[in-house]
Design goal:
Hypothetical protein af1432; Alpha-Beta Plaits; 2 domains; elongated
Length: 369
């Protein structure tokens, strides 16, 4: 890869760390498939360069779409699809082999003609693009994103086979499965992405104005703690008279009360931990590294605390009593894993009864948004 193209790849990586890793692993998988197919060294070079530039058009995609931690809406997806043609316009006049440009321009086409941007079908899609489509999709299948878990290696290989003749060239899939079966997930080396920048970026999405982490990450965190299999405590707080406070004193006072509750929880139970660092660990699914309590805002006036140890009940009562001094009524319920619950569904049922709301429907609705 020439210096100029390495610069573009690094630039895109600084905008979107996920895309950077996705590209590097996708190129590796594509080259393994290409070798299995018997491509020449020249063709492998074309494939490699095409892979490195295939997502370059994402530089022009607005942050609100490119960096959205959740699943894209249909309208947002239409914007994201523009990255192919935008990328082609960016580099078409540079000294790039046509075979590499084919990878960029046609990597989102599908064998059955249902892809984009041109709806090409079968062998009308250039060979190197057909190869890269498989590698690109396989990398996406085996990578975790906040709105989906990573598929296992075997499950992803099985999905390649199931999509033969639909999304992928059936003749290439057999070679791909054989090549990819011999390797495993490839970690990144020499990661240049500044962690401080990443912490700030995720905090814009997941740090609530109260100082708690937004509820979007509560369910993945809960699942992670349960999967860890070690004892932990789950405490819910609910402000019973927030509606009356808002009605009597205004929304600013209601917001102050919410911030006060989170502040007291942090002081009494959490020791004012680095919330941005916690968000980073949740995004990377490093739940096993989280050794401090984590505060989530799971609703309008509902707060949840996951603690890797059992906070003394007097600490929780200290929060309740301090809020009572400000004429704010707070109720709480505390549960311990595995004594009181063993699954997410049991927790959701407790939440429904405690808060009198159907959180499963709300979570699914938020995930679909």
């Amino acid at each position: 890869m020439s210096f100029s193209f390495e610069f573009f790849v690094r630039l895109l990586g600084l905008r979107d760390a996920y895309t950077r890793g996705h590209t590097e692993r996708g190129v590796f998988y594509a080259l393994e498939i290409g070798k299995a197919l018997g491509l020449t060294e020249r063709e492998l070079k074309f494939l490699e360069l095409g892979g490195y530039i295939h997502d370059i058009g994402k530089i022009a995609i607005p942050d609100v779409v490119l960096l959205k931690p959740g699943k894209l809406t249909p309208e947002e997806y239409e914007v994201m699809k523009l990255h192919v043609e935008l990328g082609y316009e960016m580099v078409k006049d540079l000294d790039i082999p046509p075979e590499s440009l084919d990878v960029l321009l046609y990597h989102q086409e599908k064998y059955d003609g249902s892809g984009y941007p041109f709806g090409l079908k079968g062998n009308d899609i250039p060979l190197l693009a057909r190869i890269y489509t498989i590698a690109d999709s396989f990398e996406a299948m085996t990578a975790r994103r906040i709105y989906k878990k990573a598929k296992s290696w075997d499950k992803a290989l099985q999905e390649l086979v199931e999509l033969k003749g639909k999304q992928f060239d059936p003749d290439i899939v057999d070679y791909a499965v054989k090549a990819l079966s011999r390797i495993s997930y490839i970690p990144l080396e020499n990661d240049f992405f500044p962690e401080k920048l990443e912490k700030i970026r995720w905090s814009f999405y997941y740090l609530d104005f109260t100082g708690a982490i937004k509820g979007d990450l509560f369910l993945p965190a809960l699942e992670g703690f349960i999967a860890r299999g070690e004892p932990f405590c789950l405490t819910f707080f609910d402000i019973e008279n927030l509606f009356e406070i808002n009605k009597r004193y205004g929304w600013e006072e209601g917001n102050r009360v919410l911030k006060k509750l989170v502040e007291l929880i942090n002081v009494q139970c959490c020791g004012m931990l680095d919330v941005k660092e916690i968000i980073m660990k949740l995004m990377r699914t490093d739940v096993k590294e989280i050794l401090q309590p984590v505060v989530f805002r799971v609703g309008g006036d509902e707060i949840a605390v996951i603690a890797p140890y059992i906070p003394p009940v007097e600490k929780v009562l200290g929060v309740v009593n301090a809020m009572k001094e400000e004429e704010v009524n707070v109720k709480f319920v505390q549960m311990r894993y595995p004594e009181n619950f063993r699954s997410v569904s049991e927790v959701l049922e407790v939440m429904r009864n405690f808060f009198k709301r159907n959180f499963l429907k709300e979570i699914r609705k938020a995930q679909e948004a």
